[in-house]
TrEMBL record:
Keywords attached to this entry: Hydrolase, Metal-binding
Name of this chain's protein: Cytosine deaminase
Listed EC numbers: 3.5.4.1
CDD domains on file: Bact_CD
Highest taxon above the source species: Bacteria
Metal-binding among keywords: yes
Gene3D superfamilies per the UniProt record, alphabetical: Metal-dependent hydrolases, Urease, subunit C, domain 1
InterPro entries: Amidohydro_3, Metal-dep_hydrolase_composite, Metal_Hydrolase, Metallo-hydrolase_Enzymes
SUPFAM superfamilies with a match to the protein in the record: Composite domain of metallo-dependent hydrolases, Metallo-dependent hydrolases
Any single Pfam family the record assigns to this protein: Amidohydro_3
Enzyme class: hydrolase
GO molecular function, one term: cytosine deaminase activity
Residue ranges annotated for the Amidohydrolase domain, each copy included: 65-422
Length: 449
């Protein structure tokens, strides 16, 4: 059966029931009832699937038989640049593969007048659709506001309203070229926040000097207080152990009481910190209750260039952050842009890479792997009523798997996606017929999903 992937194709959420669902951390199967966009009840399954989890899932009406498969909250994309999507190679390729050449290419793209409202919105919509097809229901997109016309911001602000039925968008006012390195950058961030941006962004390591970077962080926190906004700063995305703006962010968050409202994106330089400094830093990050957004695939691609062997990985020390109880989200960051020519918006790909590069393929981390693309980014985005419990928003996925470990290993299809109770899409599980041939005789045949 062909998947119906037109967002919200089945209309606004009428009552629906997901039967025979398997939940993380809970024994036995359950039936999940949904009404008015929320989970109305979670009860032990009335009738278990006869085949132990391999039966067809579709039933009458809008109900769905999960047949013992895993039901998860919708995935949350903590860090992406939708306004950059599908721009790779224009005006030129990133020949060095470095972050700073990508920034130069982007500056040239804007200077050449290649950023157009409709093109930005169309590309961003295509990227959001791709992410939604992989189970994403919430997206925090950084949007470049170092443009006096705020072209990308206005395009994404429109898109936010247009796709709200199937994807909830948060917009970060992100000064790609700096707030002091770019003339008037500080005022542009303020203006974007006044006109509807949700989150304060920044890039202190790109400012003209260390003192300018420090000053930029303080200014961005001033804006967060002024606009009552969350904070998400590109911080220390550079192969330099002396780049320590994460320490400055922690100090500002503690001093202003913004605990739990601040996300550190990338934090690449932490991979290069001396053990003594890192040991002193980690308790400060916990005290400030910072969240982290890590892009393992992208920073593996961008960082470590120009080093002789052994080549550093250039990915923040996720294992240390997790062991200290800090929320870490694995993120996409880019989809076909000057920074990263790949990317499909699939959180499981980024989860897989992150677990590998962070040495987290241990039983305890694999058993809770989906936290990196659900619970932790939801916390960073400040989402309320997220998760699988009665009264929460019905943002649900049925995955063609039974455990977190299986999701990481198999990269299963999403069979059903609900956003606020509205069906985004559903599809049948894939089937394969395996045959062993001897001459023209089939000696073995079986079908698996």
């Amino acid at each position: 059966m062909q998947a119906d992937r037109s967002p919200g194709a089945r209309g606004k959420g009428t009552a629906v029931q997901i039967r025979n669902a398997r939940l993380r951390g809970r024994e036995g199967l359950v039936d999940i009832a949904v009404g008015d966009g929320r989970i109305t009840s979670i009860r032990p399954a009335a009738v278990a699937p006869a085949d132990g989890g391999q039966s067809d899932r579709t039933t009458a009406s809008a109900d769905f038989d999960a047949a013992g498969r895993l039901v998860s909250p919708q995935f949350v994309e903590n860090h992406i640049h939708l306004d950059y999507a599908k721009t790779a190679g224009v005006p030129r390729d990133n020949a060095s593969g470095t972050l700073f050449e990508a920034i130069d290419i982007w500056r040239d793209r804007k200077a050449q007048g290649l950023q157009h409202h409709d093109r930005i919105k169309d590309n961003a919509r295509a990227a959001a659709l791709s992410a939604a097809s992989h189970g994403v229901g919430y997206v925090r997109t950084h949007v470049d506001v170092t443009d006096p016309d705020l072209t990308a911001f206005y395009a994404l602000r429109e898109l936010k309203e247009e796709i709200a039925a199937w994807c909830s968008l948060q917009i970060v006012a992100f000064p790609q070229n700096g707030i002091y390195a770019f003339d008037g950058g500080d005022a542009l961030v303020d203006r974007a926040l006044s006109e509807g941006a949700d989150v304060v962004g920044g890039i202190p390591h790109l400012e003209p000097s260390w003192s300018d970077g420090e000053r930029s962080v303080a200014f961005l926190f001033d804006l967060a207080e002024k606009h009552e906004a969350l904070v998400d700063i590109h911080c220390d995305e550079i192969d330099d152990p002396q780049s320590r703006f994460v320490d400055v962010m922690a100090a500002e968050a503690r001093a202003r009481g913004l605990h739990g409202r601040v996300t550190v994106s990338h934090a690449v330089a932490m991979a290069y910190y001396a053990p003594g400094y890192l040991a002193r830093l980690l308790p400060k990050l916990v005290e400030a209750d910072l969240g982290f957004a890590i892009a393992p695939n992208e920073n593996l691609q961008l960082q470590g260039r120009g080093f002789g062997p052994p080549t550093p990985r250039g990915v923040a020390p996720v294992r240390d952050l997790v062991e200290w109880g800090l929320p870490v989200a694995f993120c996409q960051d880019s989809m076909e842009d000057p920074w990263y020519p790949m990317g499909a918006g699939d959180p499981v790909r980024n989860l897989d890479a992150g677990l590998h590069v962070a040495h987290l393929l241990t039983t305890d981390h694999l058993d809770a792997a989906l936290d990196f693309i659900t619970v932790s980014p939801a916390r960073n985005l400040g989402l309320e009523d997220y998760g699988i419990r009665e009264g929460a928003h019905a943002d649900l996925l049925v995955l063609d798997a039974q455990t977190d470990r299986e999701v990481v290993r198999e990269h299963p299809d999403v069979l059903l996606s609900l956003h606020r109770g509205v069906e985004v899409f559903r599809q049948e599980p894939r089937t394969r017929t395996w045959s062993t041939q001897v001459g023209n005789t089939t000696v073995e045949e079986r079908t698996e999903s």
